[in-house]
Amino acid sequence: MIVLEGRVFFNGELRQGAVGIEDGKIADVRRTLKGDKNIDLGDRIILPGAIDPHVHFRDPGMTNKEDFTSGSSAALHGGVTCVLDMPNTKPPVTDARSLEDKKRIIKGRSFVDYGLFAALTKKYDASTLSKKVAGFKLFMGSTTGELLLNDDNEMYRAVYNALQTGKRVSVHAEDEPMISRNEERNNRDHLRNRPVHAEYSAINKLSGYKGMKVNICHITDAHSAALASSYGFTTEVTSHHLLFDDSISEKAEYKVNPPLRDTDTRERLYKAFIDAKITMFGSDHAPHTVDEKHTAYDYAPSGMPGVETYMPMMAEMVRKGNITMQQMVRMSSSAPAEAFGINKGVIEKGRDADLAVYDMRVRRTIKAKDLHSKAGYTPYEGRDAVFPDIVIIRGNMQIKDGELCGDRTGEDIFE
To answer: How many domains does the chain have?
Structure first.
């Protein structure tokens, strides 16, 4: 048994202790443990690895933007030990064949564990896919790819069938009829075309599934979060919607769907986040090439990278006292584990030994040249962050002293 000794996040609080690891699982958590090898981490903090429930690793079909190797490397360096990848690839994951093809293509190429989403369409029965996917994705508003399902009757039927499988349905909640196609020159124009009322309307359309396994992705407004919570849905928030508003820049680097909101809306969302009114983090890591993002705003694709930076930035928020350690761990680890039925996200006996070790005294400045995504840029350039020193997945050390030391041993946890 390998034993890590340090300040362990256990039973909702940090305490001096030891974590025993055996056969890829957490074997025991105690004040002291004797193992075959004991590793003394001093004052460093041992946290459960983060689970990112929303990434676009672009594999297959758009691997010039990202692939599973580069995307998972970025995740790993940011303390993320498991990702759930979205289906709007080329071809999209919509049926058994496309799912199995994608699984085959990425097998043996990931540094972190992963699960795949399948898209809800009017043509395919979700029950045939449910055992091999993390969940189902519903696109109520148009975005990257052609998976829009905005006929209400077809949408209701598809969501009902998916929920009957016991899997969670993650929703891009923008009501397509409320989205305009007017010319865009900047983020304010993009916001005008995709108003926050489209988010409210989309969530309200799902009210018939009250108390069921629905997750509202990339929530952008406090009212949306409260509305979704009133229906018993889980909610997910990105760092870009928390930290940026539509005045941040004229550049398409900040063009995302749903769009960055105005200052007042962003501030209300941030307060809802601070007040623990949102369930979990999700990066919505959606990289494009620098050349694509530097085209005219109206033609530039929507999306930005974030899987490597959101946890280090949240750790910096903890270090500064803006949020609690409890909140960070809940939103990054235990909440997504619970929402998607994953045996990770908590340091307790029997869980996968996915751990991230941080020295909260050591800050780094985020620089694109130091990151691992193919995107080649970051909207968080120059911000302070606390990156993990050590990252362990199923007992295997993948990052040591902040540097890659492992291999592409990530597994499909829904295989």
So the answer is: 2
Single-letter amino acid, residue 263: T
Of the candidates 175, 246, 284, 359, the residue annotated as catalytic is 284
Position 412: which residue type? D
Domain shared by 210 and 238, yes or no = yes
* Separation between Cα atoms, residue 218 and residue 375, nearest integer Å: 20
What pLDDT is stored for residue 144 in this prediction? 63
pLDDT in tens, 5-57: 999 999 999 999 999 999 999 999 999 999 999 999 999 999 999 999 999 99
**CATH number for position 11:** 2.30.40.10
Q: What is the mean pLDDT of residues 409-415?
A: 96
Residue 284 is among the residues annotated as catalytic for this protein: yes
199 with 211: CB under 8 angstroms? no
Name residues whose C-beta falls within 8 Å of residue 169's C-beta, 6 or more positions apart in sequence.
120, 135, 136, 137, 138, 159, 162, 163, 213, 214, 215
pLDDT at position 145, please? 59
Domain range for 396 is 2-47+353-404
Q: The whole model's pTM is what? A: 0.97
Distance of CA 178 to the CA centre of its chain: 26
Instruction: Report the helix count and the strand count for the chain, using DSSP H and E.
Output: 12, 18
pLDDT digits (tens, 9 = 90+) for 238-269: 999 999 999 999 999 999 999 999 999 999 99
Q: Name the nearest CA neighbour of 309 among 364, 261, 269, 255.
A: 364
Instruction: Specify whether 256 is located in the same domain as 384.
Output: no
Q: How many CB atoms lie within 10 A of CB 207?
A: 12
Largest CA distance in the chain: 66
